[in-house]
Write a structure and sequence with these properties.
alpha+beta, 14 helices, 15 strands, globular
Length: about 375
């Protein structure tokens, strides 16, 4: 009896992964999608700072204006909340109410790291007290630390604050997050802000499918890096019959949706100006599909991330607004054609994000 063997999974090279990811991230070609639909498709936007979600959508959407996202936030259709990787994200209201329960195990692990500073603290009582406080009126973290410190004077104030955001789904209320507005971080519960209870957490398989649609093809470890969760292998295995598999050049197994776009590796990829902390650069364990090994770590300094520039689909430099100038600092010298395309894209981005303001566009010293 002849033993049959399955054909080896096709190999996807770095450029093939790059183009597939860019297409799903709406960066290979700008999408006519609405801001709300894009936020949902991308499963949220990294939002450590206020402005990055706006720049992220400006790079991805045709016809985007900052008011489009700001109005969604003012209308409570999108919110700012700690979810994936224990970081602040801008999510749709629906995702806020379902993703947060799904990533609760990560919040529990984070809280465990602060147990020494929470000795003697009844965490159920703490959660009830915080809920009462923030649903009475939005509170700042300083106000919560003061209130909780009065209740547990021997506990570490920072640990008390961490416990509050780990035990409860706290959203940042407006005007924080609105374009052109300022406001300190004030918090209330997602349920109170959105006027409806949290939904049941989706099955992990549902999130796997959404992750692959926005970031695939990808490995199990890639998704775990993106979500800040562990033990997702079983969810992938339950979906295996519905997925297709590939291999990265290093042999890593990659999963994907059968009908998801996988463009030709030679598809042109125009320059894109991305904000600091863009999820494109944070959502895979192996980031070489976007970050060339020679440039690894060059868009960070300590805990500070720089705004990044893509050229031919890959990280190629950083940029900043310096007074009335947009300064591009490439990692390597650019060809004349690439420089022209970068200038053109910079002008477009400035017209979208800063209409009516005149900026010089210049190239800074090539970063070593």
């Amino acid at each position: 009896m002849t033993k049959t063997t399955s054909a080896p999974a096709p190999v996807l090279g770095t450029r093939a992964l790059n183009r597939a990811t860019l297409e799903r991230q709406l960066l290979l070609r700008r999408s006519p999608s609405t801001a709300a639909a894009a936020v949902r498709h991308l499963v949220g936007l990294q939002a450590q700072n206020v402005k990055p979600p706006y720049y992220a959508l400006a790079a991805r959407l045709d016809g985007f204006t900052p008011d489009a996202l700001s109005e969604l936030m003012a209308d409570r259709e999108v919110v700012r909340i700690v979810t994936l990787r224990s970081t602040i994200h801008t999510h749709t209201a629906d995702d806020c109410l379902t993703l947060r329960p799904l990533v609760q195990p990560a919040r529990d692990r984070e809280l465990a790291a602060f147990r020494t500073g929470l000795s003697g603290v009844d965490l159920d009582r703490l959660a009830a007290l915080v809920r009462e406080l923030v649903e009475d009126e939005p509170r700042t973290m300083a106000q919560l630390r003061a209130a909780l410190g009065a209740e547990w004077p021997d506990a570490d104030p920072q640990s008390l604050a961490v416990a509050a955001r780990c035990r409860l789904p706290l959203v940042q209320v407006t005007p924080r997050g609105l374009w052109g507005r300022s406001g300190q971080v004030a918090l209330t519960t997602a349920e109170h802000w959105l006027g409806r209870p949290a939904g049941p957490a989706p099955e992990p398989e549902t999130l796997v499918l959404r992750y692959l649609a926005a970031f695939g093809p990808a490995s199990v470890k890639d998704m775990q890096t993106w979500a800040g969760l562990t033990r997702l292998r079983e969810a992938f295995e339950r979906l295996r019959s519905r997925l297709v598999t590939f291999r990265a050049e290093d042999g890593t197994e990659l999963f994907d949706l059968p009908d998801a776009p996988r463009p030709d590796p030679d598809t042109p990829a125009p320059p894109r100006f991305l904000p600091e902390f863009d999820n494109l650069l944070l959502s895979h364990a192996d980031r070489t599909r976007i970050v060339p090994p020679a440039h690894r770590g060059r868009h960070w300094q300590g805990n500070q991330a720089y705004r990044t520039l893509l050229v031919d689909g890959f990280l190629a430099g950083v940029w900043k607004l310096d007074g009335q100038a947009l300064v591009v600092e490439p990692f390597d010298p650019l060809t004349r054609r690439a420089r022209g395309e970068v200038v053109e894209e910079a002008g477009r981005m400035l017209a979208v994000m800063h209409p009516g303001t005149s900026y010089d566009i210049r190239f800074g010293t090539v970063r070593a």
